[in-house]
Write a structure and sequence with these properties.
With 335 residues, the chain is an all-alpha fold. The protein has 15 helices and two strands.
């Protein structure tokens, strides 16, 4: 009976800091459109970019069971697609698959890997190879990363829908219903032109790319594949996911508890990932603004063609970050 009571208490627990932040994010979205846009359109686009980046971070939190333990409630709280591109259910499905640390950076098994299989990369057109190379610089990721990621993700999911993947289709139907609300409110209600709103969407994704740019790198040790950025003014916008190793080792811990968890064992965390640590994002930018941090081809995995990994007409979407339109192997649905 006691165990059942504890489980019931856990299921009914609400993390109010996250709820308040969700309300504030959507409130800022409305305020920016109704109050700020008529007088300060440029400032509005900049503010909306920040709000959309924050909402993306909140979608990440909801994917991990915050602010409640009920998935449908979390989906209602963060599922209104003001960022336009990613259906919450697709975001959650792919992101949770990414949390298999033993598969981190694998070009096929990690949905958020930026690496490509060498044998597939060789067959890509030269212009696409060049874009992928530029995308591995921090400036390139900020500027063209959102365009590559959006195009790849949407095209790959479209293929899945054509192939009859019901879970993906359901996710996009729900997303479409949300867009029926968001777009009229933004374009008609707020009076923001579509091109201006799309600029805010691009900016929001670009801001998130500051965090995702170097989150993972190849290491023989899974714990050495995940970064720690010790401090940053972006930490709040990223909901402390700059402490990314701490999040990966404690994926169910709420965002506002991560800094204390890091501080309590700082030396252990730094030793755990083998020193894959940066003081801040400025240090990353100074090192890799125009220099490719990682090769496009994975330095160790998938170097040669494998049985069952050939190009096929039927493909699986497998990325939130990279060019999902690049053909990848067919696999059974995992939704």
């Amino acid at each position: 009976m006691a165990g059942r009571a504890v489980r019931k208490s856990e299921a009914s627990r609400v993390e109010w800091p996250t709820v308040i932040l969700i309300v504030a994010a959507y409130g800022a979205w409305v305020a920016a459109g109704l109050v700020l846009w008529p007088a300060y359109p440029v400032l509005t686009v900049l503010l909306l970019g920040v709000v959309l980046a924050l909402q993306s971070s909140l979608m990440h939190e909801a994917s991990h069971g915050h602010p409640t333990r009920r998935l449908w409630i979390n989906e209602l709280l963060v599922g209104l697609p003001i960022g336009l591109v990613y259906p919450f259910r697709r975001f959650r499905s792919l992101h949770l698959r990414h949390h298999a640390d033993e598969s981190l950076t694998d070009p096929f098994d990690d949905p958020e890997s930026y690496y490509r299989a060498l044998w597939q990369l060789r067959d890509l057109p030269a212009p696409l190879k060049a874009l992928l190379s530029v995308n591995n610089t921090m400036a390139g990721r900020f500027v063209i990363g959102p365009l590559l990621g959006t195009a790849g993700f949407v095209l790959a999911d479209a293929r899945l829908i054509v192939q009859g993947d019901r879970a993906v289709r359901r996710a996009w139907v729900l997303h479409g219903l949300g867009l029926v609300i968001v777009l009229p409110v933004a374009i008609v209600g707020f009076g923001i032109p579509l091109w201006a709103y799309l600029c805010a969407v691009w900016l929001g994704q670009s801001l998130i790319s500051v965090r995702t740019f170097a989150e993972h790198q190849w290491s023989e040790r899974p714990d050495g594949r995940t970064i720690i950025v010790e401090r940053s003014p972006f930490a709040f916008l990223f909901l402390n996911n700059n402490l990314h190793l701490v999040h990966h080792k404690n994926p169910n811990v709420a965002w506002y508890r991560l800094p204390a968890l890091f501080r309590s064992r700082r030396d252990e965390w730094l030793a755990l990932n083998g020193g894959y640590v940066f003081r801040n994002y400025s240090a990353l930018f100074l090192s890799y603004a125009f220099k490719r941090k990682e090769p496009v081809a994975h330095p160790a995995l998938r170097r040669t063609a494998e049985a069952g990994r050939a190009f096929k007409p039927r493909v699986r979407a497998r990325t939130l970050n990279g060019m999902g339109s690049v053909p990848v192997p067919a696999e059974p649905p995992k939704e």
